Amino acid sequence: MAFRIALPKGRLLKETSALLEKSGWKIEGYNTQMRHYRLLSKKYPEMGIKVFQEKDIPIQVAVGNYDIGICGLNWIEELLVKYPSSAIDKILDLGYGEGALFAAMRPEMMRGTGTIIRIASEYSNLAESFAERLRLKRFSILPLWGAAEVYPPESAEIVLLTGKTEKDLVKHKLVNLSLLVKTKAYLIANKNSLKKKDMTQILAALTKNVPHGIHEIDEINNIPVIVRAVGINAGKQNANDKVRIALPDGHQQSHVCSIFKQAGIYVHDYPSKTGNRRPVSNIEGILIKVIRPQDMPLQVANDNFDLAITGRDWFTEHKYQFPSSPVVELVDLKYGRVRLVAVISKDMPAENIDEWQRNRHQSHSACRVASEYTNIADNYARDKRLGRYRIIPTWGATEAFLPEDADILIENTETGGTIARHNLKIIDTLFESTVCLIGSKRIIYDKIKQKRVKRIIEALESAVGAN
Amino acid sequence: MKVERCKGFKDFVPEDMKRFRLIENIFRDICFHWGYHEIRTPTLEYLYLFTSAGTLTPGKLRRVYSFLDWDGWSGERVVLKPEATIPVARYYIDNPQKGFSRLFYVTNVFMFEETGREPRERWQCGAELIGGNSVITDSELVMLALNVLKKLGLNNLEVTLSHAGLIRAFLDEMELDPQEHGRIFDRILDGELETLANIKPVKPELIQVLGLLLKLKGKSPGLLKNIRVISARTLPGLIPALDNFITIIDLLEKTECNYKIDLSYGKGFEYYTGVIFHFSVDKEIVGGGGRYDQLIPQMGGSDIPAAGFALYMDRLSKLIKAENIDTINTNRVLVDFAPKVVKEGFKIATLLRESGLIVELASKGQQETEYDWVIELKSKSPTFVINNPKDGRKLELDSFTEVMRLLGCN
Hints:
heterodimer, A: 467 residues, alpha/beta, D-Maltodextrin-Binding Protein, domain 2, six-stranded mixed beta sheet, 14 helices, 26% helix, B: 410 residues, alpha+beta, BirA Bifunctional Protein, domain 2, Rossmann fold, 2 domains, nine-stranded mixed beta sheet, five-stranded mixed beta sheet
């Protein structure tokens, strides 16, 4: 019988690969340099193996696209806490990937009670459940793509962070508020597959090679919320004259650096070899933080930053979700040019979106649109009148979804090379995106700050103009 | 592609709507005569209204429909109204000019239900009495609800009474830590009274009283009074709640209300502080309510007591007997006319409607046999050709006055 298995990218890849090797699966190319997400096992050639971001795996197994999957307990609980009836069973503790998910905060925030408690996290479902179990009177959840550790105290009171132990929080100057999940790598299975399919051979091989066999697992709702703080103080916004700037992490850093240099702004320790997310600059009155570009528009909207450098793709994504958001594009920095495109499998007989839609009209199932940009994808599906459709949110590696797990993707591409390599083709271009400086429509009342913001905008404008 | 309704949501077909309107009309009419004023709160509210302690139990909170609004970039979520009382309390706080308020509402509430076989959208009609905290006000609400149920033609009515104040006072005596206290109280309100039996109380006298409390079932004011005597010396904390409960029961005894006591009927909302009541028809629960003196102050309003109840319209509508549904006994008339006499056609249809008849304009595919009268309007004499498909009578008339007379209109 054919099986389908979802394997993780990222932090669990190395140990998962070693375990599967030990279990004699003989999978080719499952390593950090892999160029394809669809892999083959020499031992089980009929098995469909695909590699996903860890966060996507519980969802893929729960909806039945995959029979089994491997991922951390943190992501399993993130799904189950919101959707307890999801069709997944945790079947085997694999004995690696140990760590914990903590709710953490700055020690200076542990005073009195504040008004709105902001919880920033990649785990928005667990964050919501934590706030509810804590019986917080008023809270808001700021969903993040990453770098949660840099948010407190100015941009959030509480963050949810993973670490090996509590000590990992100390390096970010945070303290543990509550342990939410003791995480480990787990083998999970789709409930129906477990009932109907004979997976004994595969499970036996895996069980033999994990140290402790099957464990009892704490249900998330039974772990008591132990809060060490007496109260949490809502952080005050920076009311002074400092300009708060968000700079991107990742591959954009060197470009930002060179444009800033041309504008006469020198940022020390950026990009940072030590992972410093609070670099300093030569200009007086600037506070810099390094965060994910995806998270910037929301942060500017919430007045956690005055200026930020992100892609127009993420700015548009934000505006589609919150049309009346105060965030505006200030300067087009004219680099990092990508196109947002609609992508289908190369085997589909269509060259453009209209042709593809005409062919789809005969289909009775809902159209599955996979994208990191859920709001852009949603907007596109409505504009193109795709009829009954489902948006499948992804966390990167979206190319892996076609053709089995989605019908169409909304993706960004620079040259189209990655798309072609995955046997896919572009059938529509939504818009072109470059990196831009964003800010807020909100009025800046502080005269000094007003001047500083203006000076930075002008400096960047002239730097771009000089290019 | 299949056209589907959302799972857990239903259409009200015309037959359902007749039942729905009957309940609504009787409820509104009675509330109006008891001095209550109707309000309607929005479908969407901020989630935080329902998340703080003393509002919804965590079990309920996990099933609300919450999401980010189009301007929800701050991350604060909104929710489809999961229950009706908290929005009324919010309204009351929003409008501080009110002192004593008698309010009623008819509304839908939303709560996720896993199987999709039970409704996820439910309709309630309820009343809230804000500003009074005497036992008379508690009884007023019970009597008001019973008045509605009787008027709906329902028999075998019963009121089951429990007391959140008594359960709270008992937990206080157990000297649990605040988190444990809250957790157990929530579980009891989620219907698990047996949770109490599993705790080992610090004071031995509590075991004795606990045994009696768990036995407290049926029409037993005597038992309640005996518990009071036993507790008076060793558990004085229970006395105010017991006294309150006894007084309410004595009062209901006098009104000849059919009641029973059952503490395990505490099931409800975390905001209850005093008596909790459930109404049942032939043992099926059709409504509930109670006293919630701390809700308004906890939500940031003034220190004002309140109590209320809601009747579950979806359950009631299944229990209403067909003969009680107000079948409109009005004759149905079909008027057929050619484009040439369109002006006259509309005019006579209007006149007939104003006389109390149901008048439809003829269109292809309508069955004449469904009507009491079919009137054909012509441009020349005889102007009116009238037939009665039920008895086969056929008449030709020229005067509209004669037509009116024939149809029994004044």
